[in-house]
Amino acid sequence: MIMKKFISSWGRLDSSPHNVNILHFPKILPRSSDEKGLPFGNGRSYGDVCLNPNGVLWFTQDLSRFIDFNPTSGVLICEAGVLLRDIQRLVVPRGWMLPVTPGTQLITVGGAIANDVHGKNHHVMGSFGDHIQSLHLLRTDGEIIVCGPNEKKEWFEATVGGMGLTGIITIATLQLRRVQGPFLETENRSFTNLSSFFDLADSSEVQWEHTVSWVDCLNNQGRGVFMRGNHVDLKRDAKPLNLGISMPFTPPFSLINQLSLRLFNRLYYKLQGRRRERVMVHYEPFFHPLDDVNNWNRVYGPRGFYQYQSVVPRGVGKEALLEMLKTISLSGEGSFLAVLKTFGERKSLGMMSFPMPGVTLALDFPNKGEKTKSLLRSLDSIVRSASGRIYVAKDACMPRDLFEQGYPRLKEFLKYRDPGISSGMSRRLMGY
Ligand SMILES: Cc1cc2nc3c(=O)[nH]c(=O)nc-3n(C[C@H](O)[C@H](O)[C@H](O)COP(=O)(O)OP(=O)(O)OC[C@H]3O[C@@H](n4cnc5c(N)ncnc54)[C@H](O)[C@@H]3O)c2cc1C
User: Is the CB of 307 within 6 Å of ligand 1?
Assistant: First the structure.
């Protein structure tokens, strides 16, 4: 059954009409329509990669069955609409965990593969696609392609990070990693500038699996707080933290402004940077601190917000980041969530995967129309000159030339696109 619905992505920049079709396994693809469709996971992408305005969205939420789990080998087979949260809650008590999780676990396996998501441990574990043994890809002509790193490798490399454009992933086989329990030993270090950030990153990555930093984007030296964590063998009878906090309505204007940001940044730097002792933290608040605040994206008001995540090579990283921070500071805009992280040397296997060796910065900006777009264009020029790339999962307005420059395997990827699939992003950046 097809329903007409207004759908927006996590950035809430706009809400456009879609024909929504909820897929059910195994007879899942509606064949009656000539309209192009797009698989939809849990809509946690920020821009138009998960939208197909005026077209069809195939909702995968009902493809939510666990098919098999081997507690000895840690191999899990499930449908692609299963949420990462549900996998973790099933396997962590049994001594296993997903090797890679992003900043939210409220995403589907299909969405995690299609954007080849990364976590805080990229320097150790690579990205999500590195842990997929095989997947089933349903094409809109009805063909099912089973592919993996050792089988139809070219289809696998096109589909991991393929933004849903090669077909619908219906089933995936994942290799989990061992953990002794749900806890991590964590510590914080403050840094006053980017040179200290890079020193901390270099020294920490040898001994710490998870590293991530918050950076004060109103301070153009790049001060911030470096957070690191390792899994530990601590079997407390701990329940996941559930704060049950919710943003009950959308305020008429963004609650993020210069004043609130300045106050928050000062306080956060002081409080988090001061905490020097090691603390045991459950994996949920450590990996996914915002998941307990329902609808936190409403805080930016009715016009929504832009996420901007770039990666630039390490050699030019410090200069490029300083230039970005200076540009943001001069623009009078500010980012509430400014996350800095180094990627490891592992080459991404997906043709269109985002991670590459270098340093990545993720920023949020309330949508103030042309003013914000102009800032994003200035940031684009810095990324372009540094030979970097923008993360499509977060993007809503990168120019086509920057996309083509940042993703050198694009031409090769286009051969694997499914002609029955299209998205707002693919029309904007690929022309169809
Ligand atoms: C708070 C927050 C923190 C985040 N942190 C990170 C982070 O640390 N690292 C990171 O990499 N990302 C991060 N993200 C982005 C998020 O992980 C990705 O956008 C993810 O792909 C969203 O998955 P989803 O299931 O919601 O899919 P959607 O957003 O609905 O779709 C994403 C893409 O996957 C495709 N897709 C979905 N299901 C299928 C399927 N079954 N078959 C084929 N294609 C499919 C869609 O067509 C679309 O192109 C974060 C997002 C939020 C909101």
Answer: no
Question: Can you read off the two tokens belonging to residue 62?
Answer: 């009902």
DSSP assignment letter at 108: B
Query: For residue 294, what are the β-bridge partners?
Result: 246
Indicate the top mutation candidate among 62, 104, 169 to test ligand 1's pocket, ranked by most ligand atoms within 8 A of CB.
Answer: 104
Ligand 1 geometric centre to CA of 334 (Å): 25
Dump pLDDT digits (tens) for 150-189: 999 999 999 999 999 999 999 999 999 999 999 999 999 9
Are 376 and 369 within 8 A, CB to CB?
A: no
For the stretch 236-264, pLDDT in tens is 655 555 555 665 666 666 666 766 777 77
Residue that is written with structure tokens 């510590």 in the block:
187
Question: How far, in Å, from the CA of 83 to the mean position of ligand 1?
Answer: 11
CA dist., res. 126 & res. 113, Å (int)? 13
| Nearest-angstrom CA–CA distance, 119 and 177 | 14
Q: Is the CB of 80 under 6 A from ligand 1?
A: yes
Any ligand 1 atom below 6 A from CB of 348: no
Encoded amino acid at 130, one letter: D
Q: How many CB atoms lie within 10 A of CB 183?
A: 22
Residue where the block lists tokens 């050792």: 150
Determine if ligand 1 sits within 6 Å of the CB of residue 158: no
Which pTM value belongs to this model?
0.95
